[in-house]
Design a protein that fits this description.
Elements lengths: L1 H5 L45 H10 L6 H4 L6 H16 L18 H12 L11 H7 L18 H18 L7 E7 L2 E8 L12 H8 L3 E4 L6 H10 L14 H11 L6 H4 L4 H12 L12 H11 L3 E4 L3 H9 L3 H16 L9 H27 L2 H7 L2 H7 L3 H7 L2 H14 L5 E7 H4 L5 H7 L3 E4 L4
Parallel strand pairs: 2-5, 3-4, 3-5
Antiparallel strand pairs: 1-2, 1-6
Helix pairs in contact: 2-7, 2-13, 4-5, 4-7, 5-6, 5-7, 9-14, 12-15, 16-17, 20-22
Length: about 475
């Protein structure tokens, strides 16, 4: 059962390997207006340039999903509006602002004015400064609504993109007003006139991770370059990684694991809409990684479960910032591809147990069941601690809690050895090259938080090379 805990190390060591929510067009726009002409054509027009800066946060917060690509310029439905206001209500409740009695009668419909009224109704129960001026004036004071040269167009039908943008701006501005939001495990390295921010990622979405604090959002969007373990925008790399996950030798999953485990995997994935023929194509390690990711999610995850590094990539890409990968998809795939057949099967069995939880445990003795239950509880507690440390920028707490140095010196686990071996030095070398370049440049390097800490980590490695590296002060 110890493997249930050691497998969690991957959350702080491996890049996410899922495509990112980014605008499909490469044209970039500034602040602009926020009016979209409503249309009912089957194929939606390109997402307007003014909305690019709303996409990453809107998706991460769960204000919309992939339907934004085809429905962004259609009138928001009541169901979509209810979802949007529900997200706003949940996020504002987390701020801990003093509650008060609120009263007001406003027209709630799917016009732009009606949507603003609906959002205002979620703000009224709290003692935010200036909230009593009324919906339109309050929303204008918060820079939620901008309109265009003809005015605010309050009577015009509100598009899905407009409604989501209003909600996104409202959440972010109120969090900024309260100095709130996730801070991240963030360090700053300086040398030769260059600055490189070092952000340690935990590759999941949990513990009400979003929104990020303004300080962190500004560091992302003000960087000239954003580096990640992988270039998430490389379709060639994504295709290569996808091909590595699937059997190409004529065999299927059934030929590589026990019949019992095979059936358990098929039954576990059926409720997610994956038929047996599809599941059978995948190798054990690919399915194990999926079960690990799924098991980390809970009721505190957003609807889209957007991992930290994917959000940052989307935020940077939509701002026109250069993206670079420190490692390759082929390299990360080889970490799993080269695991022994026996280890891959055990890895799949362990992560399936993590995903299914104690209620699905069958055929175990009372002692084994108690051990599994304790391991699962410790897993949840550990991830919760890491996420809270990430949100509050408790770099020292995370370094003490994440057992990197102990694992490196004592591990006999195949996967843990591969997760650490040789990777930190390569990342240190990349950061060193960035800091050595001529001129004055500012960049952001986002890799697994496990790579930042410890005796062999990036922070210590850059210090050993003579750079100044310090945790970024909490605002």
């Amino acid at each position: 059962m110890k493997r249930l805990l050691t497998l969690l190390l991957a959350l702080g060591l491996l890049g996410s390997t899922t495509p990112v929510m980014a605008a499909e067009s490469s044209a970039l726009g500034g602040e602009g207006n926020d009016v979209v002409v409503t249309t009912d054509v089957a194929q939606a027009a390109p997402i307007p340039a003014w909305a690019y800066k709303e996409l990453a946060d809107g998706y991460a917060l769960g204000l919309f999903g992939d339907e934004i690509y085809t429905q962004h310029n259609k009138t928001v439905t009541q169901e979509q509006l209810d979802k949007i206001t529900g997200v706003v209500a949940d996020k504002l409740a987390l701020l801990g602002v003093e509650q008060r009695s609120s009263a007001g009668s406003f027209v709630l419909d799917t016009t732009r004015g009606g949507v603003l009224n609906a959002l205002y109704m979620e703000v009224l129960p709290y003692a935010f400064p200036g909230v009593d001026v009324g919906p339109v004036d309050f929303m204008r004071s918060m820079k939620v609504v901008r309109g265009d040269n003809t005015g605010l167009a309050l009577d015009r039908p509100c598009t899905l993109m407009e409604a989501a943008a209003f909600a996104d701006r409202l959440i972010l501005n109120l969090y900024d007003q309260q100095n709130a939001g996730s801070l991240g495990l963030l360090w700053k390295a300086e040398g030769n006139g260059n600055t490189l921010y070092l952000l340690g990622s935990i590759h999941t979405d949990r513990n009400n991770l979003y929104p990020f604090h303004k300080q962190l959002r500004d560091i992302i969007t003000n960087s000239e370059l954003a580096a990640f373990e992988l270039d998430f925008n490389s379709q060639e790399g994504i295709d290569e990684f996808s091909a590595m996950q699937i059997y190409s030798d004529g065999t299927t999953l059934k030929d590589h694991i026990s019949a019992e485990l095979y059936q358990e995997v098929i039954e576990a994935l059926a409720p997610l809409g994956m038929p047996e023929a599809q599941v059978a194509q995948f190798k054990p390690w690919a399915l194990a990684n999926s079960f690990t990711a799924l098991s980390m999610l809970d009721e505190t995850s957003s609807d889209n479960a957007m991992a930290i590094d994917l959000y940052i990539n989307a935020k940077a890409a939509n701002a026109g910032i250069q993206i670079e990968g420190v490692e390759t998809y082929a390299f990360q795939g080889s970490i799993f591809e080269n695991l022994s057949a026996e280890y891959q099967e055990n890895y799949l069995a362990s992560t399936l147990a993590m995903y299914q939880g104690i209620d699905a445990a069958e055929g175990l003795t009372a002692a084994e069941k108690a051990e599994l239950e304790a391991a699962l509880k410790e897993q949840d507690a550990m991830v919760d601690r890491w996420m809270d440390q990430w949100k509050t920028r408790d770099t020292q707490g995370f370094a003490k809690d994440y057992p990197k140095d102990d694992i490196q010196s004592n591990t006999t686990d195949e996967l843990n050895a591969k997760l650490f071996e040789g990777r930190d030095p390569n990342m240190i070398a990349w950061a060193d090259r960035y800091l050595k370049q001529e001129g004055s440049h500012t960049g952001l390097m986002t890799v697994g938080a496990g790579h930042m800490i410890g005796k062999t980590g990036i922070v210590q490695g850059l210090k050993d090379l003579g750079y100044t590296v310090e945790a970024v002060p909490v605002p």
